[in-house]
């Protein structure tokens, strides 16, 4: 079990127009974690200027919480910059992201695997040179009918989903804390039976 710090990254697109989108649920979870840790996220200098970040503690572990300021498909550059700045291997990276292949309000943890068409994950894999990082997958469900998944993820959560969104964000934040506090296998045993 690593002593950390872990780099915990919440994926989303920048700007108020995207704030409520399904694709931004990772950024929503990151904001919740920053609140819990009492951190004010700010842009750094140089390679760190493309992300809002802050250092603190979660579940007794040192963490760097970060939200890229780039669009989703360019998330890898800021993540690589933060890993390099903090001298962290990709194994210490935790990426919180939306997941089409999980039903809405489901949270799952894993290390590695494919990107499933997720441009943020694809960019991070390309920039880090590995798929072997930790993922907190926040289920947003599949689009209805024949709706294009690319359109679906860039739409706001529905009114029905918004009623449960606060709970989902809190559960995903709990999952991140469990993951950094106890490790992947122990965290999976706690998180996966819940939903």
TrEMBL record:
Reactions the enzyme catalyzes: an N-acyl-L-alpha-aminoacyl-tRNA + H2O = an N-acyl-L-amino acid + a tRNA + H(+)
Gene Ontology MF: a single term: peptidyl-tRNA hydrolase activity
CDD domains per UniProt: PTH
Active site: 23 (proton acceptor)
Binding positions for tRNA per the UniProt entry: 18, 71, 73, 119
Cellular localisation: Cytoplasm
Annotated site, Discriminates between blocked and unblocked aminoacyl-tRNA, chain positions: 13
PROSITE patterns: PEPT_TRNA_HYDROL_1, PEPT_TRNA_HYDROL_2
Enzyme Commission code(s) on record: 3.1.1.29
Keywords linked to the UniProt accession: Cytoplasm, Hydrolase, RNA-binding, tRNA-binding
InterPro entries on file: Pept_tRNA_hydro, Pept_tRNA_hydro_CS, Pept_tRNA_hydro_sf
GO cellular component: cytoplasm
SUPFAM superfamilies attached to this UniProt entry: Peptidyl-tRNA hydrolase-like (SSF53178)
GO BP field: protein quality control for misfolded or incompletely synthesized proteins; rescue of stalled ribosome
Top-rank EC class of the record's enzyme: hydrolase
Pfam families linked: Pept_tRNA_hydro (PF01195)
Positions of the record's site feature: Stabilizes the basic form of H active site to accept a proton: 98
NCBIfam families reported for this sequence: pth
Function: Catalyzes the release of premature peptidyl moieties from peptidyl-tRNA molecules trapped in stalled 50S ribosomal subunits, and thus maintains levels of free tRNAs and 50S ribosomes.
Family as reported in the entry's similarity comment: Belongs to the PTH family.
Assembly behavior: Monomer.
Protein name as it appears in the record: Peptidyl-tRNA hydrolase
Name of the gene: pth
């Amino acid at each position: 079990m690593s002593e950390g710090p872990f780099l915990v990254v919440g994926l989303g697109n920048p700007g108020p127009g995207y704030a409520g989108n399904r694709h931004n649920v990772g950024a929503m979870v990151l904001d919740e974690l920053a609140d819990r840790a009492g951190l004010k996220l700010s842009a750094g200098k140089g390679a760190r200027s493309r992300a809002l970040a802050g250092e603190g503690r979660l579940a007794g572990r040192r963490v760097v919480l970060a939200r890229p300021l780039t669009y989703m498909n360019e998330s890898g550059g800021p993540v690589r910059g933060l890993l390099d700045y903090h001298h962290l291997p990709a194994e210490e990276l935790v990426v919180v992201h939306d997941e089409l292949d999980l039903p809405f309000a489901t949270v799952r943890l894993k290390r590695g695997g494919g990107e499933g068409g997720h441009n943020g994950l694809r960019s991070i894999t390309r920039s880090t040179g590995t798929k072997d990082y930790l993922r907190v997958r926040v289920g947003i469900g599949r689009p209805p009918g024949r709706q294009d998944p690319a359109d679906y993820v860039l739409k706001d959560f529905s009114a029905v989903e918004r009623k449960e969104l606060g709970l989902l964000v809190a559960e995903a934040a709990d999952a991140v804390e469990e993951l950094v506090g106890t490790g992947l296998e122990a965290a999976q045993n706690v998180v996966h039976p819940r939903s």
